């Protein structure tokens, strides 16, 4: 297959390029914002109709959650209109789109994990713009919702926690926001499977093991051989300064579509966390 990957320089995009590129059966065309402005309809259509991919994998997005709150136009231009442009290009060449979305499409008020079929209700501009992107896709495309992504490339919470631990004796993280940490290399491997098997629809793809950010920070320190007792809990309402964008209190995504479809779920997050911490310290 010939695979076009957007956001190829990003945290997930780089892992996707590696996942597909390691397989001689696939030809990978990876593009980032320096090569393709997804907000330009003309540029997108020109590239897609020239490359004529068999599938488009689309993790490119503006993911600065708090910045999105103060620049809704940019959020929707990139996350919604950019996806519209790619969907139009895909339509012209008969290729499905595999769109990476987010837990922020939910409001976080549900007491149990979110299923793929649950009602969406984003509370932030970022979540609304990503949901708008979902709605731009044709029925034959695939939506991959994920959460709390960490990896070797780019900035993420594992790197932040390790940096803070090197600078401070004690750390504070919220204990009233829960989710599934997801590691970019594992996520990329599952997306590759969905592409190769041409599975349409909506899938929640995360590593397993629901935790709060407080619990996750402790696990990061434990994986690095540091004292997890250095991390103290704090409530979201007591954060200083308060975050501009509201966070879902419950971001736990049930990977029901994979599970019910007989697909083995990704490992408990502690497995790739140990792998990542070891890689970062190598």
TrEMBL record:
Query: Which one GO biological process term can you cite for this protein?
Result: dTDP-rhamnose biosynthetic process
SUPFAM superfamilies, per the entry: NAD(P)-binding Rossmann-fold domains
Give the GO cellular component terms, alphabetically: cytosol
Q: Name one GO molecular function term.
A: dTDP-4-dehydrorhamnose reductase activity
Q: Where is the RmlD-like substrate binding domain?
A: 1-277
UniProt xrefs under CDD domains? dTDP_HR_like_SDR_e (cd05254)
What PANTHER family does this protein's entry cite? DTDP-4-DEHYDRORHAMNOSE REDUCTASE, METHIONINE ADENOSYLTRANSFERASE 2 SUBUNIT BETA
Q: List the NCBIfam families hit by this protein, alphabetically.
A: rmlD
What this protein is called in its record is: Unannotated protein
Q: Which organism is it from?
A: freshwater metagenome
């Amino acid at each position: 297959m010939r695979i076009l990957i957007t956001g190829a320089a990003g945290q997930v995009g780089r892992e996707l390029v590696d996942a597909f590129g390691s397989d001689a059966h696939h030809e990978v065309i990876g593009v980032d914002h320096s090569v393709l402005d997804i907000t330009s309809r003309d540029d997108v259509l020109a590239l897609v109709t020239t490359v004529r991919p068999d599938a488009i994998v689309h993790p490119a997005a503006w993911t600065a959650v708090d910045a999105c709150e103060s620049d809704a136009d940019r959020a929707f231009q990139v996350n919604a209109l950019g996806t519209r442009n790619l969907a139009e290009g895909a339509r012209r060449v008969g290729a499905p789109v595999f769109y990476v979305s987010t837990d922020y499409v939910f409001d976080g008020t549900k007491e149990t994990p979110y299923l793929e079929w649950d009602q969406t209700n984003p509370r932030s501009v970022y979540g609304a713009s990503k949901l708008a992107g979902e709605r731009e896709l044709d029925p034959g495309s695939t939506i991959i919702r994920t959460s709390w992504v960490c990896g070797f490339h780019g900035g993420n919470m594992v790197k932040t926690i390790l940096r803070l631990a090197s600078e401070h004796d004690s750390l504070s993280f919220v204990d009233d926001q829960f989710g599934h940490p997801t590691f970019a290399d594992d996520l990329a491997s599952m997306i590759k499977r969905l592409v190769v098997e041409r599975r349409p629809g909506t899938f929640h793809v995360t590593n397993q093991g629901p935790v709060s950010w407080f619990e996750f920070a402790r696990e990061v320190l434990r994986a690095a051989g540091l004292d997890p007792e250095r991390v103290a809990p704090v409530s979201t309402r007591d954060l200083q300064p308060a975050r501009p964008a509201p966070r879902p209190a419950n971001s736990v995504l049930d990977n029901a579509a994979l599970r019910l479809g007989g697909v083995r779920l990704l490992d408990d997050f502690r497995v790739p966390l140990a792998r990542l911490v070891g890689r970062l310290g190598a």
